[in-house]
Amino acid sequence: MLPEGVAPFTHITRNERSGRKQQIKKKDEDIAVCECKLDPGKTELACGERCLNVLTNTECTPGYCPCGTYCNNQRFQKCEYAKTKLFKTEGRGWGLLADENIKAGQFIIEYCGEVISSEEAKARSQTYEAQGLRDAYIISLNGSYFIDATRKGSLGRFINHSCQPNCETRKWTVSGETRVGIFAKQDICVGTELAYDYNFEWYGGVNVRCLCGAPNCSIFLGAKSQGFQEHNHVWEDGDDRYTVDEFPLYDSAEDEAPSEKVNKITTEEPLSVVTVRRSEVNNNNNNGFGYKHKTNFSGGNIKRGGGGMVVSGDFNNGPAKRAGKRSPNRKQKASGRKPVNGKRVAQLFASKKVQDQLIKCEEIRSEASVMLDSVYDEIRPAIEERERESLDSLPTNVAEKWIEASCSKLNADFNLYFTVVKNVVCPPPPPPPPPPPPPSDPQT
């Protein structure tokens, strides 16, 4: 029974699929069967944390698990939810709180809704916007599908965002289907509001005020995303992208480089984010940091809570997103570490044996680098096609090839560095001196 005032929706405990048939594995050899053994005296440990299926976020299939009805790894299928309760928050709409003590790692509830394609998600976002709907709940399932809990969903749709969450979302495979569960990140006492990080990705549009009230609150949803920071020029400690000495300075009359070096301009006042008035949505376009009044549904995770809209994910709809301002001299992120050339390092060792080892390691590493580049060129069209999307939908053989090439490169790097360190710390003993010539017999 829902409290009075909750917007009507259809409560479901399992995803409903629109436009595609439910994928159920029919072949026995495709079903993941664990190797757990049931201890009749300790049935509560059946399919526990050491279960192979649990370790891979896969639920056991009824009828195939060695532990039978005692299996503890069927929480999604059996709806083994924690006790929760809806309540009215102050300024953030409805929320969900723990109605019992919840342990860290415990499964709380499944995020259920209608599983729809990215095209359908885009169309629905337009419809919700046109209708002025204030409660839209769409999250990204993978690169191709989304879960819309707006009209049909579980109570998980009411869990609010927090920059300091006590819950997190995890993807599990259940009977061949990917499902989203909400789990406790820490021990949660009864009466505590449940919250998780929406991982909001900003692609343009309005500034949505974050109302979580956490000590480390980012102030705006998506403020940590690259698009938001580039658009708003958020400065961080050590950010030298826009310092004066990064730009060439010329005389305006002669357009020639000055003969003397221009001194770097410094200030004692720290740079900070532009201050805006406290409101849920900032639509002021006169300060250089505002956005279009029209909401841009350009994400895959849309959730409105307390009047604010949450958008993150993959589909792009509406006006094209505004490219962030970039400096022509902007530095790219780099590790600051120069690559090690094994052949040059080999010349620093006196031992011919060590030199041969390092040269061999360098040759293997070069081959691994060429292979990795080749594989990347092969899968790059698929990556560029999806842009920011998740690569969950890439073919398995392509993913395996990329993983194999990456591991080979890492292994080659490790072998080279290990060989260098080993021979520096424990150099090989010098070869024994040649034996002295035998004494000549005295002439008789």
The CATH superfamily name of the largest domain is SET domain
* Rg calculated over all Cα atoms: 30 Å
User: According to CATH, what is the class of the largest domain?
Assistant: Mainly Beta
Cα end-to-end separation: 122 Å
Look at the structure and give the mean pLDDT.
Answer: 75
What is the CATH architecture descriptor of the largest domain? Beta Complex
Alpha-beta content class: alpha+beta
What oligomeric state is this?
A: single chain
Unreliable runs, pLDDT <50, ≥5 residues?
249-336
Summarize the structure.
With 444 residues, this protein is of the alpha+beta class.
What does this structure look like?
By secondary structure, the chain is an alpha+beta fold. It folds into 2 domains: 81-250 and 273-331, Beta Complex (Beta-clip-like); 342-425, no CATH class. Helix content is 22%, strand content 15%. It is built from 7 helices and 17 strands. The protein has helices at residues 52-55, 75-78, 118-131, 226-232, 342-346, 352-386, 396-425, and strands at 10-11, 16-17, 84-88, 94-98, 107-110, 114-117, 137-140, 145-148, 152-153, 160-161, 167-174, 177-184, 195-196, 207-208, 281-282, 301-305, 308-312. The protein has a 6-stranded mixed sheet with strand order 2-6-8-7-16-17. Strands 5-12-11 form a 3-stranded antiparallel sheet. A hairpin with a 2-residue loop joins strand 16 and strand 17. Helix 6 packs antiparallel against helix 7. The longest helix has 35 residues, at 352-386. Mean pLDDT is 75; it is low at 249-336.
